[in-house]
Amino acid sequence: MTPALNADLLLRAYAAGIFPMADSADDPELFWVDPELRGVLPLDRFHLSKRLARTVRSNHFKVRCDSNFAATIRGCAESTEQRPKTWINQEILTLYTALNRQGFAHSVECWRGDVLVGGLYGVALGGAFFGESMFSRERDASKVALAHLVAMLRGGGYTLLDVQFVTPHLKRFGAVEIPRADYHQRLATALQRKTHFAGGLDGVAVVVNLQSSTLTS
User: Fold this and answer.
1) Can you tell me the distance from the alpha carbon of 162 to that of 41, in angstroms, rounded to the nearest whole number?
2) pLDDT value at position 217?
3) Which residue of 1, 7, 61, 142 sits 20 to 30 Å from the alpha carbon of 117, by its own alpha carbon?
């Protein structure tokens, strides 16, 4: 069980390579996680399929950053048929919303008009971005958000995209597992970097960025 958490303690935990989770949305308790094998998505090896490249290039969704962080994290916390159980409880919602107000947590959002249809959120420290969760209410919305995120991180000087655990879904984009010691070394190096997190890329610019040195199929 964690001690009483606040935004400052949470940032120190990320800098040390650990993060909190809950067993379920209804469980008020949090616990620390430091996986023996850590999931990372190498920014120079993002796998952009031809179909996803077409979707991103078409600007099918309006992609924004941090325009409604609270709605994005609530979307990630929703139960779905594919994901009936979520680890995002009320304390997670409160803590990460506070980090967003301080400029450390960010959301990448896909909008259809005035409706939020997908997105993701995570924490940025130095040259590391710690991806937390994503959701879709329309086909490909979270994938488009992820493609925009990777392009933004590459353009902003980031070197580490931490995805915590490798799922079959993330493996399709190039996510791999690395040993804990290797992860901590990469994290220590990334934390020393000066970076900027800024959106504003249109779909064509995102695809050009990603295809400059990544795999396509």
Assistant:
1) 7
2) 42
3) 7
